């Protein structure tokens, strides 16, 4: 009996009872391997499609972002101190320490010339998800 004949008789409930135990086990094994193989192939194809879409979408974002997302590594306080001077000094200290930690250098080696706040370009669902995650931890 060929594999196709075996699977055809395995699919029919009336003829399945006439099969021997070894034929039933073999047909079950073939069905399992065939199902797992098809699933694995579909997941591999899906992975390539997702990677391809990621490259396409990131390329479009990368072309649009460089004009707006230039972040200077050195920042400076303005010469005239606004009414929030203590907050600005704390902000400068925090930014300097983060940059120093990221660059693996001392805070003394960093000169902050200007601080520019960038507009948040993330979608609303992204911000809502982040807030939900932060609030669910407590």
Description:
The chain folds into two domains: 3-59; 88-136, no CATH class. The protein is an all-alpha fold and 138 residues long. Helix 1 packs across helix 3 (21-64). The longest helix is centred in the N-terminal third of the chain and has 44 residues, at 21-64. It is 64% helix and 0% strand.
Gist of the model:
The protein has 138 residues and is mostly helical.
Give keywords.
rod-shaped; 5 helices; 2 domains; single chain; 138 residues; mainly alpha
Give unreliable regions as ranges.
Answer: none
Which word captures the global form? rod-shaped
Q: What is the beta-strand fraction? A: under 5%
Order of helices and strands: HHHHH
Spatial separation of the terminal alpha carbons: 64 Å
Percent range of helical residues: 55-70%
**How many E strands?**
0
Radius of gyration: 31 Å
List the helices and strands and how they pair.
Layout lengths: L2 H9 L1 H4 L4 H44 L20 H19 L20 H13 L2
Helix pairs in contact: 1-3
